[in-house]
């Protein structure tokens, strides 16, 4: 029997595609890494650690991470009120994934050499 050539949903073609969407979107990884490595942070502290992110994008990403259950937001009433963010248990469960990627990061030198070799052919 001949296979159908109809389009396959990304999650069926690659079951980790939805995971990559949630965990590895632009700014999500640095936020989760920071909260995992350095613990609970206030908004301004996160902003100082991840210097290239704008306040608007940081706010959007933190809301998304809270909605996805990867970050916990704690509001402390008072004068002035205080809000803190920390990685959730679900977010912490990604630690082995991040550790594996950190272990692989020395390979970036190989990637760069491969790119240079490829580009030199052009």
Whole-angstrom Rg: 19 Å
The oligomeric status of these chains comes to single chain
> What's the architecture of the domain at 15-93 in CATH terms?
Orthogonal Bundle
The secondary-structure class comes to mainly alpha
Question: Quick summary of this structure?
Answer:
57% of the residues lie in helices and 11% in strands. With 122 residues, the protein is mainly alpha-helical.
Describe this structure in words.
This protein has 122 residues and is mainly α. It has a domain at 15-93: Winged helix-like DNA-binding domain superfamily/Winged helix DNA-binding domain (Arc Repressor Mutant, subunit A, Orthogonal Bundle). Helices cover 57% and strands 11% of the residues. It contains eight helices and three strands. It has helices at 10-13, 17-23, 28-38, 43-49, 55-67, 89-92, 95-104, 108-121; strands spanning 41-42, 71-76, 82-87. A hairpin with a 5-residue loop joins strand 2 (71-76) and strand 3. The radius of gyration is 19 Å and the shape is globular.
Present the secondary structure layout.
Blueprint: H1 10-13, H2 17-23, H3 28-38, E1 41-42, H4 43-49, H5 55-67, E2 71-76, E3 82-87, H6 89-92, H7 95-104, H8 108-121
Antiparallel strand pairs: 1-3, 2-3
């Amino acid at each position: 029997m001949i296979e159908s050539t109809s389009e396959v949903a990304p999650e069926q073609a690659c079951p980790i595609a939805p995971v990559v969407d949630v965990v590895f979107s632009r700014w999500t990884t640095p936020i989760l890494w920071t909260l995992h490595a350095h613990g609970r942070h206030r908004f301004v502290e996160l902003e100082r650690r991840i210097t290239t992110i704008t306040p608007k994008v940081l706010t959007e990403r933190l809301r998304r991470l809270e909605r996805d259950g990867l970050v916990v937001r704690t509001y402390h009433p008072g004068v002035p009120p205080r809000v803190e963010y920390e990685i959730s248990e679900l977010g912490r469960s990604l630690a082995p994934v991040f550790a594996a990627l950190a272990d692989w990061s020395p390979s970036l030198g190989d990637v760069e050499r491969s790119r240079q070799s490829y580009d030199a052919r052009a």
